[in-house]
Each structure stands twice: as C-alpha cells, then as structure tokens.
Amino acid sequence: MSSPHSAVPTAVSVPSPSAPAAATASAPAGSSATGSSAAAPTVAELMDFVRDAARDEALVASLPLDPEGRTWIRLDGPGGSEAWLIGWPPGTGTGWHDHADSFGAFTTASGALKEHSLAVRLPTDGWKTLELTEGVDRSRVLATGQGRAFGQNHVHEVLNESTDTHAVSVHAYYPPLPRIRRFSRTGAVLRLEQTERPEDWQ
Questions:
Q1: Residue 202 — very low, low, confident or very high, per pLDDT cuts 50/70/90?
Q2: Alpha-carbon distance 55 to 195, whole Å?
Q3: Of 84, 130, 134, 82, whose CA–CA distance to 109 is shortest?
Q4: Which of 96-110, 114-128, 141-155 has the lowest mean pLDDT?
Q5: CA gap 71, 138 in Å, rounded
Q6: Each residue's pLDDT tens digit, 101-119
Q7: 114-123, 131-140, 161-170: which has the minimum mean pLDDT?
Q8: Which of 56, 53, 65 is closest to 172 using CA atoms?
Q9: Are 142 and 181 in contact (CB under 8 A)?
Q10: DSSP the chain
Q11: Confidence of residue 78 (pLDDT cuts 50, 70, 90)
C-alpha cells in the first residue's frame, strides 16, 4: 500500500495512559495455539498463525461473548509474538489507533469486520494534532476467513457494523505490543488522545 504524502504536525504533547474499557478473559485449557520458538516470526508466519487459529472451531467457541462489550483471550503466538482471540458485539469497534513498532496480522474467524486505515506513516512522538492530506484513507470488509497483514505504525480502526451478529477475530503482533496510541478524528484532523502500555490491557 503506497503512502501519498506524510501528515503535517501542528501541535505537541502526549497525554497520560489510561486503561481500556473492555473486559478480559482467561486463556482456555487445551488451547490449540502454538507455543513460541527461538526465531522471530515473519509477517507471513503471523498471517499463517491467525488463519489457522481462526479455523479452529473449538478455540473460537471457547471465547466468552458479551453483548455489552468486546472480550478477549490471550494466545501463545509463534516466535514470542503476542496473539489474541477477540469477540466483537454488534456495533462495537476499536476507534483509531496504531501498534507502535509492532507489525502484525489479523483474520476474521466468524461474522465480518470492517477496517478503515491510513496509507501514511505518522511521526512516532512529539505531536498532538495532525492534518491529513487527501487520498490517505483506505477501507475494506473482512468476511469470515479473510484477513490482512500490516507493518509498523499502521493506523486503523476496526468495526463490527452488524446490528445483530457477533464477530470473532484472531490477531498477532511482533514484537509484543510496547504501546498503543489512540486517536480521535474530525474530518482531516487526527488528534492523539492517549497512549496505552501493556499494563493497561494485560
């Protein structure tokens, strides 16, 4: 995916971290997710992992589903990667965010998810508000069995736009997420709202 023009910073400062709202669930006994290995995984290996996990009906069925909010189970990803099985009630989403220096992949195991993303790399630090140039928006629908890989500093939001059906997906990241930056967006203006660290969601 090409990056037309970089965004232009207009202000600085970073807010304090805060914890996410969704509840967590413990990993089930007998999960079919594979253990870690010595070598760092490639993007292709992460993609293979999330596809295989998404096809594991017993694993997907082990995820508790909550009509009020997203739920998740931590999985053992390949090569020391961080992996999650996530449930999405109808009408829920992540909001705009990135995964810092981690690359990754995700696949829809059931239902359908919509991803909005930005084809532009954002500055890593030292800004509060960015004005995006035209042509950077991308959107795609990922039905059951469909997924995608992404590189470092990938900015996106993921949504379950269904009004009556849960979605479930499998995600993997390497290296394990050092932080997640969360953004709000009004038109072409992207605003950094908070930065989360692993202790906020584990």
A1: low
A2: 33
A3: 84
A4: 114-128
A5: 26
A6: 899 999 999 999 999 999 9
A7: 114-123
A8: 53
A9: no
A10: ----S--EE-----PPP---SS--BPPPTT--PPPP-SSPPPHHHHHHHHHHHHT-HHHHHTS--BTTB-EEEEEE-GGG-EEEEEEE-TT-B--EE--TT-EEEEEEEESEEEEEEESSPPPSSS-SEEEPPTT-EEEEEEETT-EEEE-TT-EEEEE---SS--EEEEEEEESPPS-EEEEEEETTEEEEEEEE-HHHH-
A11: very high
Q: Please check the confidence at residue 10 and state whether its pLDDT lies above 50.
A: no
| CB 140, CB 171: distance < 8 Å | no
**How is residue 75 written in tokens?**
């999985």
Say which amino acid occupies 128. K
Question: Is there a contact between 6 and 182 (Cβ–Cβ < 8 Å)?
Answer: no
Question: Which residue type is seen at 44?
Answer: A
Which sign, positive or negative, has the C-alpha torsion 89, 53, 72, 173? negative
